[in-house]
Hints:
Blueprint: E1 14-20, E2 26-32, H1 36-39, E3 44-46, E4 70-84, E5 87-98, H2 109-122, E6 125-137, H3 150-155, H4 159-169, E7 174-179, E8 185-190, E9 193-194, H5 196-215, E10 220-221, E11 235-243, H6 261-281, H7 287-290, E12 300-301, E13 303-305, E14 312-314, H8 322-328, E15 331-333, H9 342-359, E16 369-370, H10 375-384, H11 386-392, H12 394-410, H13 416-426
Parallel strand pairs: 1-5, 13-14
Antiparallel strand pairs: 1-2, 3-4, 4-5, 6-8, 6-9, 6-10, 6-11, 7-8, 11-15, 12-16, 14-15
Helix pairs in contact: 2-9, 4-5, 6-9, 6-10, 10-12, 11-12
Amino acid sequence: xxxxxxxxxxxxxxxxxxxxxxxxxxxxxxxxxxxxxxxxxxxxxxxxxxxxxxxxxxxxxxxxxxxxxxxxxxxxxxxxxxxxxxxxxxxxxxxxxxxxxxxxxxxxxxxxxxxxxxxxxxxxxxxxxxxxxxxxxxxxxxxxxxxxxxxxxxxxxxxxxxxxxxxxxxxxxxxxxxxxxxxxxxxxxxxxxxxxxxxxxxxxxxxxxxxxxxxxxxxxxxxxxxxxxxxxxxxxxxxxxxxxxxxxxxxxxxxxxxxxxxxxxxxxxxxxxxxxxxxxxxxxxxxxxxxxxxxxxxxxxxxxxxxxxxxxxxxxxxxxxxxxxxxxxxxxxxxxxxxxxxxxxxxxxxxxxxxxxxxxxxxxxxxxxxxxxxxxxxxxxxxxxxxxxxxxxxxxxxxxxxxxxxxxxxxxxxxxxxxxxxxxxxx
Length: 427
């Protein structure tokens, strides 16, 4: 029998404090879990250039150099246990970038969303939202006839059930898990959550999907396109407004398309600014391979009633009970994918909708337009948009453009198949 001193030590539990950054990837720093309570108010130290880490890993361009320090401070309400192979679960805590005096940093993705929600609150509304997240699960073979089939659900084995169980463990209410349209493609959706919590849950669900798949020896690939002629993975954002008392404020049976006056203004603002904000919601070159005709993905700046090809879709009400109609009624934003940070994607949606409310924009005033055909085109529209510059602030706006243009430059001369493969290896 081995002496106690000869026994290998047990792994010490870790905590990870992080955020979904400009590349839409969860990054931060880890500490011993035993030290977490003492670090809640100050988090971990981060340099400004950390936000400039590209999707590919290296910092391709930064205005900050090596100078400067920030704090990444955890939010106790945004915590989840992430499975780790052969080790205790990692305690994940999402957080905010703060300056050393405790002020919000202007370029914090979570802070960008919070500013939009604060403005919406000042206008008398809150936002309920959830993210439908599509992915390719590598633990199942491709088979003809699989879309939406029981066979495809059965053959994925434990992945879906373990993912839903992990979501419940993170206090995220699962709404659905299903076999989707594409080969080996599945979709997971959480129930709606209020404000920042909706984006927090989207970040956590992504990491749970990756961790559960890894525990089974496989991957959950959330990249927008796995190969250029394939079926895309979208991240669709369902949202609805609530009033100051938390009551539904999106539905009016007498309104255009069933929208309340406030929701109509909000959607009009979203559509008005859509050509510029797709640089944030569909922020990679491969995003635009999905946004092509014939792929059940948007190609125009349009509003559709129960039309899954539209950029913004009015969702149906199932059943006729008047008391449930207003709570069920919601709008779907379909021009987003997992290369976008949920904080930036939802934040762009909120800021654009809030502008529609403030300016009392009308759906009847909108003219049809095409979505940008490439990230380069979308970034040019974003650069020329005074509205997005105002929402982000001049520093963050310029920083985001610099970051994304460096990503494009790093792919110069690469063909579509190789670009898809590169993003599929990361996301």
